[in-house]
Write a structure and sequence with these properties.
Blueprint (H helix, E strand, L loop, with lengths): L5 E7 L2 E6 L5 H17 L5 E6 L4 E3 L7 H6 L7 H19 L1 H4 L4 E5 L2 E3 L1 H7 L3 E5 L3 E3 L12 H8 L3 H10 L3 E2 H7 L4 E3 L3 H16 L3 H15 L3 H15 L3 H12 L17
Parallel strand pairs: 2-3, 3-5, 4-6, 5-7, 6-8, 7-10
Antiparallel strand pairs: 1-2, 8-9
Amino acid sequence: MASEWFKLSEPAEYVLLIQMARVLASRFWKAYGALFDAIPNSHPHIRAVILSSALPKIWTAGLDLYDPNLGTQLAPATTDPFRKGAELREFIVAFQHAIAAPERCPVPVIAAVHGLCIGLGIDVISACDIRYTADDAAFSIKVHIGLAADIGSLAYVPKITGNQSLIREFALSARMFNAAEAEKAGLVSRVVSGSGEGVVKAALETAKVIASKSPVAVQSTKHILLHSRDHSVADNLAYTATYNSLALQTQDLAECFRAVKAKQQPTFGDVRKKAGAKL
């Protein structure tokens, strides 16, 4: 699954580290979506994912505006504007689907940010479950290219954060904001001293804790939290009751009871049993 776009490794048991290695061109986001969508089958033993950057000073500077494929796609209509619009809508929806792939990934995804995280970078981290940042990070929701952000920022960020005024300031002005402001707004949950290495280390410690838990419980929790975000309390309670009527039959529950009584650490099997692909 490693490629020119990503470096993959397993720094701890059940934990997959994905490092972005190139600028975000159109070929990147197609490979990005495919990578995350493949994880349940390619790496069935993985229980937590960390998303970071292999670049020393930049997490991502956003979409590559010099990408020739992007330029061709966004060229003005030369025929029927409706047909061009239908083509562009298909392009945008596919782009959105790819960048939202961490949300579809059944295991938790932790974004470990350092350096610049600009434009599309906000879309990318917004679809992750947990966001940590190094204190050297700088963020910006871009509007000054003449278009509202359409890949995820404006859909996710207002639901993620608790400070609507501050987020609207960031989005409408496109000004840079630092790690402390990102934490204040609720965009990230932890600021780590140092740069990329330090924030990945912090993310790894959290990932290892998550990976030690029942994968049935963790994956169910992620799924139900996402449902809760987009539904009423009553709808979510009803959904959870139905969902857990299946999940309560898991072997993980019995294993947890056994381990508590025996004063041992529980051991859990993979949710999927297919053989994983090599890195």
